[in-house]
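Minutes, project check-in
Item: structure for the 182-residue chain
Input as provided by the requester:
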Amino acid sequence: MSIRAQDCGGAEYARDKGIPVILFPKNKDATEGLSAEDLIAALRSYKVDFILLAGYLKLIPTELVRAYPKSIVNIHPSLLPAFGGKGYFGMKVHKAVIASGARYSGPTIHYVDEHYDTGRILAQRVVPVLANDTAEELAARVLHEEHKLYVEVVAALCEGRIIWREDGVPLIQSKENPKDYR
């Protein structure tokens, strides 16, 4: 059984709320979906400021990354740059973390660039790796923190609280005290 993109829960929710749904990428065998150029045009027509991904596993086309610099964000279930890159996703990440003997893991929110998991890191949250953890137990703790952290980062994006250091590192300005960064 395959689930089509137009049938996913998020698309259904959006349609029910009158939010436009754009299908991407266009598969060579599919009759639906957009090319990268058509996607950029559609996003611009809707005046999209940010593209928020949630563990998206495919490379984003270079055209889209260039059209939306510092505007595409994704999450990863490890403390990048460790356990990131092609092939590191889902339970594979947590199994690798445990097998390595790492004492800490956690979610990373990062900008998207033309490569897997190499964009500038916006935020991370540390989660301990317990002595007898299973990959499923660690994944659950990381996901719990991921949900909280992503909301905080998206709020900072929308509120214009991302400040870029001279060396190109993004920092999140504190909402309570604008002179503090993390």
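Outcome recorded: The beta strands are 51-52, 72-76, 104-105, 108-111, 121-124, 127-128, 162-164, 170-172.
No further action items on this chain.
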